């Protein structure tokens, strides 16, 4: 038996499934887990070091010298990166940098160009 989440309205642990909905018998609140999961995905926002919201296709600039793992070279401050792609994980920017190739960056080390 899978554990169902508590009611988001009254925090009751006595929730049950009714078709595709979850129902709380104490407050009669009904909600859908699928809608909650989609809403959580939509709410994920990636921000740069200055707090600007980043989107796929944006151009960013590196704000700090970054050591590149597996290489003796360094990614210099001011390097401009075009056409970023946002991904899940710790390194949330996927991009290609001229002279370095494909790389993943953390959004905290870039600013929107």
TrEMBL record:
<dbReference type="Pfam" id="PF08274">
    <property type="entry name" value="Zn_Ribbon_YjdM"/>
</dbReference>
<protein>
    <recommendedName>
        <fullName>Protein YjdM</fullName>
    </recommendedName>
</protein>
<comment type="similarity">
    <text>Belongs to the YjdM family.</text>
</comment>
<feature type="domain" description="Protein YjdM N-terminal">
    <location>
        <begin position="4"/>
        <end position="32"/>
    </location>
</feature>
<dbReference type="Pfam" id="PF03831">
    <property type="entry name" value="YjdM"/>
</dbReference>
<dbReference type="InterPro" id="IPR013987">
    <property type="entry name" value="YjdM_N"/>
</dbReference>
<dbReference type="InterPro" id="IPR013988">
    <property type="entry name" value="YjdM_C"/>
</dbReference>
<feature type="domain" description="Protein YjdM C-terminal">
    <location>
        <begin position="46"/>
        <end position="113"/>
    </location>
</feature>
<dbReference type="InterPro" id="IPR004624">
    <property type="entry name" value="YjdM"/>
</dbReference>
């Amino acid at each position: 038996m899978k554990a169902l989440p508590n009611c988001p309205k009254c925090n009751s642990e006595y929730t049950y499934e009714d078709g595709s909905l979850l129902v709380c018998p104490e407050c009669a609140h009904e909600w859908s887990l699928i809608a909650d999961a989609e809403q959580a995905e939509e709410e994920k926002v990636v921000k740069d070091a200055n707090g600007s919201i980043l989107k796929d296709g944006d151009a960013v600039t590196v704000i700090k010298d970054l050591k590149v793992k597996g290489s003796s070279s360094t990614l210099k401050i001011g390097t401009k990166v075009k056409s970023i792609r946002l991904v899940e994980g710790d390194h949330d920017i996927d991009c290609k940098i001229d002279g370095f190739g494909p790389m993943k960056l953390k959004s905290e080390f870039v600013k929107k160009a």
